[in-house]
# Entry
Amino acid sequence: MRSETAALEAPTTRIVLDSGRGGGRWWQWLLLYPSVGVALISAIPAWIDQIQAARIGVGRRDLAQAQEQNRLWQANLDCARLQEMQRIKTNRNIEVGAQVCPSGDVLLLLKRTDSDEPSFHWVSGRLLEQQASRWLEPAAALAASRDMVSAQGSQRVLYQRWLRPGLLKQRVREGGETCSDLIINTYTGNVVSRTPVGCGAEF
# Structure
């Protein structure tokens, strides 16, 4: 009878998580719920992209394109001083300028009449080579020529330097002796600020 009573009174062994004050250690939860760990780990790249996009001021979907634009600015920085950028105005009142670099990459300047400042956008030479057959069709060339009117002037980069990653300062001469210092966001191509200056002023 005692043996049966002892067996009944014997403490049962239970596996209990070390609850402590936090309701279990984090690694114990991951062991019990591996799907939670997988979800957290798989979300890390998205979080990193979100942080990087916020840091440079673009949406997460535009991050790859913004990084490519900045890469092309860095790869072709010396090209900006090799030639003047001729600007024309289309019959839709949009100013367009282009500068072709030895790498084959093309820097485009676009300015709408309702905008105070232009924006700059790179087109990769590799992309142009891939699409050359379509872009050089006679019909496309004819349509482009109809949209263009007489030249509106030129722009030449005199000096330039990096202020910090993603922010480029340029001194440009815009016809005659008129100069301005531009601050360009090389991720978005937007002109952050423009300051009229003397062409010989300290840079």
